[in-house]
Amino acid sequence: MNITAIREVLQQGATPVPLEGEHYASSLAIYEAASDQRDRILAWTREALIPEMGAERASILSVGCGAGDLDKEILAASTEQSKVVAYVGLEPDARQCQRFLTQMRDETNGRVQVEAHNVGFEDLHDPRRYDLVIMVHSLYYMADPAWAVEKALGLVKEGGRLVILLAANDTLNELSSSFWKMEADREAWFSEDLDAYLNQLGLSYERERIEGRLNVTQCFNPASVAGTQIADFIAQVATKKLTPQLQGMIGEYLDATSEHDGQQRWLPHNVDAFTIKQQAVSYGALVANAGR
Description:
The chain has helices at residues 3-10, 21-33, 37-49, 69-81, 94-105, 145-154, 171-184, 191-201, 225-235, 244-257, 283-290; strands spanning 57-63, 84-90, 112-117, 130-136, 156-166, 206-210, 213-215, 259-260, 265-268, 271-277. The strands form two sheets. Strands 3-2-1-4-5-10-6 form a seven-stranded mixed β-sheet. A three-stranded antiparallel β-sheet has the order 7-9-8, covered by helices on one side. The protein is globular and about 55 Å long. 43% of the residues lie in helices and 20% in strands.
């Protein structure tokens, strides 16, 4: 089974139900629990980002912070480096935003200032500039990812960095990109697209692959609720609401693409980390250079 066959069936008039609200949040939590990627991202953050923070003060903007599970760890690591940390989370889902604030409040003290804004990135009007703007797996959801990159760059102060973590459009993400295209009538950006766009802008940057694994063993147990939620998040749709034909094809696809040792099955769960330091170029110059 290959992705082309699935896409051909989708083009015949399928009507997938996208992940939204609590279904999205619960599926994400189960999906992340089945992966070691978050721990690997945190290890990379501690090694590559935190040591570059100022010793006195650091300001961080997290775009698409979700419930704050990763942000809480980044904040804790930041306080080991900087005496005062201002941490701002941006999350369009109200329930996730409240969870972020609840988690991060536990860390609030005289050295830590936390804000949460329940708005989409396009509705953010913030005159401040940050030492670090971080976008972890959020660029996929932007209606205009090129604009989002340019806006994020404009929020970085002199000497600061924009860090975007984005997966490649590889085996794990071919399903979601197929459904996204149908639901939103647009192509989601993956790391290959961001790489091309940064080159188009003429910006210098660093790109590093963070390797991880996603355990998909439960996806092959029809009675497993967790397995269904992992499959839902992989495809970014409610898989049980797809036609039996598509459900079967997705199962065959995961079977054909996953690795196994006789007991466990997994897929590579890699992410590319792009680090762009603030450069002496204006927002207007970026847009003109990109021909936008």
